[in-house]
Write a structure and sequence with these properties.
Distance between the termini: 213 Å
Largest sheet: 6 strands, mixed
Structural class: mainly beta
Strand content: 35-45%
Order of helices and strands: HEEEEEHEEEEEEEEEEEEEEEEEEEEEE
Shape: elongated
Length: 399
């Protein structure tokens, strides 16, 4: 049936409307695709291969990064710090002061570490000292402190191989801690008198340690009462050690004590009884000599042992001889005589006497000379031979 003119116009308009809709839809999709490609920070999603069993039968290349074996880290340097209030830390110097009654807390970096404290604390463990090893450091805590706790505190890092550990002394950190006490200027001691040897070849320390580095200390002699000069050369004072006599002499012997002054407080230390001992410079060098290397039965024998050394240095002689095995008694003569030449040296001598030698007296004679520096032995051998009877003179017989 043929369309009328009105129907034809209506269908033409409808077709045009559909064509415009399609064109508009196509333009919108194209614009959206361009925006996705140009948006910053966004990348097209890549297709990832699904995890599963590979169907490729050929060799597979390694795609992971190579593993690098870490080298052992060098040990951290040991550091000794003092723990202050509210978690504050302070690196310590050679000395620190903590008021008596307060708590001392030291922290030493290292794993593990070992501590050394004044002998007073090691001997009298009353629960005030606590040592704990943490993950990377050790902690020393001392509560209810007193002036007696004054002394040196040392932290030793430990070097360990498996279960075997040893102190690394060259890496030790130490600090001398003073505990100022308003009533005790000297570190307390249980001894009223302390005997100290004055060795002629070694400095002597009088341990009159103070609890406060601010105290002024002088040295005094008990009898006759007098103050002893501390000139820094012959005698010096160190606030951490006490008085040191650098080259002891006989006139230093006697009863000495220290006096400390701080403000209106003045106190005396323990009295030190100094006994002078003339120490030798080295062990003795004995020389042994027998009166004869061969002695007849019934004859007397003398074996001498002599030492030349410093004056006033005692030498002890010890003998070993063949007759000891049967209980033959020891007879010796000893004497000391000056060595000529004015060299302040002396000869010490011991002579072993053997009366009426017998076969049992044959053998080795050993002399050991000993002084305060050591001992040395020397030996000699003696033979005992039968005594030859003198032959009677021949006489002419006449008939």
């Amino acid at each position: 049936m043929p369309l009328t003119e009105e129907e034809f116009v209506w269908r033409l308009r409808l077709s045009a409307l559909l064509i415009c809709g399609l064109i508009f839809e196509l333009a919108y999709c194209q614009k959206d695709a361009q925006q996705k490609q140009t948006t910053p920070g966004r990348r097209p999603k890549q297709n990832k291969p699904k995890l599963g069993k590979s169907t490729d039968k050929g060799p597979r290349a390694a795609t992971g990064k190579p593993k690098i074996k870490a080298s052992p880290a060098a040990p951290a340097q040991t550091v000794l710090t003092q723990v202050l209030n509210r978690g504050k830390f302070k690196r310590v110097g050679e000395t620190i002061s903590v008021q008596s009654g307060d708590t001392l807390e030291l922290r030493c970096r290292g794993k593990p570490v070992q501590w050394s404290v004044p002998s007073y604390l090691e001997e009298d463990d009353d629960g005030r000292l606590r040592i704990v090893q943490q993950e990377r450091y050790g902690v020393l805590t001392l509560v209810n402190t007193t002036g007696a706790d004054t002394g040196e505190y040392t932290c030793f890092p430990m070097y360990c191989e498996d279960t075997d550990c040893r102190k690394e002394y060259q890496k030790a950190n130490k600090v001398f801690v003073f505990f100022p006490d308003p009533h005790e200027l000297f570190v307390p001691s249980s001894d009223y008198y302390e005997v100290i040897q004055l060795r002629s070849n070694w400095p002597t320390v009088l341990p009159c340690q103070v609890t406060s580095p601010e105290a002024k200390v002088t040295l005094h002699r008990e009898f006759p009462p007098a103050e002893v000069a501390v000139d820094g050369t012959e005698i010096s004072f160190n606030v951490r050690k006490g008085m040191t006599i650098h080259r002891p002499r006989p006139y230093h012997a006697g009863a000495l004590f220290c006096v400390a002054s701080l403000g209106n407080l003045r106190q005396s230390s323990t009295k030190y009884m100094l006994i002078y001992v003339n120490y030798p410079m080295a062990p003795p060098a004995p020389v042994i000599q027998a009166s004869s290397g061969s002695v007849g039965v019934g004859d007397n024998l003398q074996v001498s042992c002599s030492v030349i050394g410093e004056q006033d240095v005692g030498v002890e002689f010890i003998w070993e001889y063949p007759g000891q095995q049967i209980g033959r008694p020891l007879y010796t003569q000893e004497n000391i005589s000056p060595v000529a030449g004015g060299s302040a040296r002396q000869q010490s001598k011991s002579v072993l006497l053997v009366d009426e030698a017998r076969d049992v007296d044959e053998g080795m004679y050993t002399c050991t000379a000993q002084n305060l520096q050591g001992a040395k032995s020397v030996s000699t051998t003696v033979k005992v031979v039968p005594k030859v009877k003198p032959k009677k003179p021949l006489t002419n017989k006449t008939k």
